[in-house]
Amino acid sequence: MGLVKYIKEEMKIIRERDPAIKSSFEVFLYPSFKAIIRYRIAHKLYKRKHYFLARWLSQRTARKTGIEIHPGAIIGKGLFIDHGIGVVIGETTIIGDNVTLYQGVTLGGTGKEQGKRHPTIGNNVMISAGAKVLGSFTIGENSKIGAGSVVLSEVPANSTVVGVPGRIVKRDNVRIPREDMDQVHLPDPYLNDLKILKKENEHLKNELEKVCSSFGEFKKVCDKLDSIDKIIDKMEKLNDKDLR
Q: Closest by alpha carbon to 17, among 67, 77, 65, 80?
């Protein structure tokens, strides 16, 4: 793809996904635009085994934009990084087409393992602010990762993941995340769990009140039986006296 055509594509992507942009020329001010263009150059150097130059360019870009993309990562077309500060993309990461990342996202590994150690991100995935995806597994296409989530295992396609650690809270939500950029209105599994616990607690409270009530009735019966026993004892004593 020629440079002019590439710039036009980037303008289209940013205008599509960022409501803050007012003119096409603003794209030249976006850290995402600068970081991705420099990544493309660094990636070519990396593939030609010019590792030092590739890393030098990527580290220089990280200092200028706040976005660190390892030149060894494989990134498809249409990547958009909104704001971008704190975004880290590891060496063996594979990113599909039309992926959106927000600030603070980490696509990293979990240790010093060799080989493929970073995630594979499918097409049309949205990863919200502050989310961490750690390890060598796949995030299925059309999936959405909620803000602040920590994802440590495979995510099927068309899924919504939230929480720490990340939990799948919705499946087969086929709306494409790059068309639906909502990071906020996602299901809350913790709120649902709290509602269930509250309901169970109310049930247990009602059952306990029934037991306590039954125990009170039982105590009354026992008290009556004690009274009857005392009356019988008195009658027996009186009867013994009469017999004497």
A: 80
Contact predicate 138/156, CB 8 Å = no
pLDDT above 90: residue 217: no
Note whether 120 and 200 are same-domain residues.
Answer: no
Cβ atoms of residues 40 and 76 within 8 Å: no
**Is the domain of 181 the same as that of 196?**
no
Which tens digits make up the pLDDT trace of 137-186?
999 999 999 999 999 999 999 988 988 888 888 776 655 565 565 556 56
The bridge status of strand 167-171 relative to strand 159-162 is antiparallel
Residue reference for tokens 């976005």: 67
Residues 131 and 156 in one domain: yes
Range of the domain at 228: 188-244
Please choose, from the candidates 98, 47, 52, 34, the residue with its C-alpha nearest in 3D space to the C-alpha of residue 73: 47
Spatial CA neighbour of 184 closest among 129, 134, 142: 129
pLDDT tens-digit series, residues 86-109 = 999 999 999 999 999 999 999 998
Task: Give the predicted TM-score (pTM) of the model.
Answer: 0.71
